[in-house]
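Notebook B, p. 112. Complex prediction, attempt 2.
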Amino acid sequence: MKLKEKILTKSLWVYHLSAGSCNNCDIEILDCFTPRFDIERFGIQLVGSIRHADVLLITGAMNKKSAKILKALYEQAPRPLFVAAVGICPCSQHLFKGNYPMLNALDEIVPVDVYIPGCPPRPEAIIAGISKLIDKINAKKQETK
Amino acid sequence: MIKLFAQYLVFPGLLFSFFIGAMGFWLERKLTARFQYRVGPPWYQNFLDVIKLFLKETILPQGASKIMFILSPIISLSAVILVSVMLANNYFLNKSFVGDVIVILYLLLIPSLFTILGAFSSKNPLALVGAAREIKLMLAYEFVFITCLIIAIVKSGNSIMLADITGNQILNKPNAMSLSGAIAVLLSIFYAQAKLCIVPFDMAEAEQEIMAGTVIEYSGPLLGFYKIAKLMLYFSLPLFIISLFIKVRTTSTMSRYFIFFLIYALIIFAMSVIKNINPRMRIKDALGFFWFLLFPLGILGIILAQLGL
């Protein structure tokens, strides 16, 4: 069964949801695909449709309106699906905490597998987060076995 | 019986053409990466992608026509398997029958047609937009490719048998060495580009504007069938171009394979150059490009071929 996870972690297709971010984290995510960092060499691709995705990448502080969209997207995705929160906003809501359109926390809406803090996180940090996610996928399946 | 199955599933059929097509697609991805000063994916990336898709869950969208939704990727894949078996049989094993050029032409229509039907049956508005674009694009590129076929047929002395077209090139010289043949090669590379949804003509699957267009609702194994069909088209369309226009006389089987892979890599290189120096066209511009620039060029090619140039 270990082979299955190995294949999955070597071709992660990422769907990017901007849930009310300031665009800074979105730009840093695109930076990961530029010549300097080039995460396509690990088989990671940005895909257009949630039906093709293995990883749901969330940027931005989650407010009440985008929470509905996030929930719908999470339910539409084929399993196995992993959720990554990029930036300090989805991790802790940062300076928007306690604001009137905000909900409490991201993991009250969907389960989150990896948090990548930073405002915005550097591409190196995002790559480190992805490698942690890959380790987690491999480790989790070993436990259940 | 076993030999027949082996023919369709192993040697010129599914496994062989899937392997070559995946390597061709990897070459295209790697070249794209090198054009952008990136490293690019490892050579086994496409195999991993396909296997991963078969390990995932398939979701049938609510309100979709389920039978059509499930059948269309399978039918497109089987049509592509037939095409690649017929083409590879002719190229590598010298087996052919009368009228197979026409059969291949309509079998090549089936993948696009069933992509459109699958998109319509998925009941997604973005898929409908993608399907409408694919229909318009089909009207554009099929015209142009028919002129290319006519050039090849005229060149071989009005024979509609693939073995005659290739045999005539072995006896005399490759069609691409003449003026009309060169025009036909150029046109058919654009045709392959549009058929495979590569960048200047990828408006049907435009990732940025209509998400994934025609395949937006597909997931898991069904998307995997589409992916395999597309990778096999990466093998069979260049093979069709090669056997129509660039068949070179060879002495041994080894050199036949070697020359095929060389010309195949050159065609993939040309396609990836076109991909990397062009932005995505609007559908209106693509129609204009095919109808008012390439189609008259094709007619000119037919006239030149009749004159023996």
